């Protein structure tokens, strides 16, 4: 039972870990700020919005791909 809980927690953490990939955006933040003429707070909100959307939508996309197949679920994207 303990191994099942650990496995479930590990799987549930995948969306969170994958959103940490937004660290790739950090080097381009100054360019984004200059090009869009926005403050550093607004630039950081871009990352936050991206992360929250990914955390919410990745599990839904996974469920849909399991249920209907990857081609059908990813085609609208």
Automatic annotation (TrEMBL):
It is found in: Cell membrane. InterPro entries: MFS (IPR011701), MFS_dom (IPR020846), MFS_Efflux_Transporters (IPR050189), MFS_trans_sf (IPR036259), Sugar_transporter_CS (IPR005829). Coiled coil: none annotated. The keyword Nucleotidyltransferase does not apply. The chain crosses the membrane at residues 45-64. Residues 7-77 form the Major facilitator superfamily (MFS) profile domain. This is Major facilitator superfamily (MFS) profile domain-containing protein.
């Amino acid at each position: 039972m303990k191994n099942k809980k650990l496995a479930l927690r590990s799987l549930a953490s995948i969306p969170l870990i994958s959103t940490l990939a937004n660290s790739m955006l950090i080097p381009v933040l100054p360019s984004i700020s200059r090009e869009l003429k926005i403050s550093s707070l607004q630039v950081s909100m871009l990352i936050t919005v991206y992360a929250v959307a990914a955390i919410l939508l990745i599990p839904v996309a996974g469920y849909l791909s399991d249920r209907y197949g990857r081609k059908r679920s990813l085609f609208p994207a």
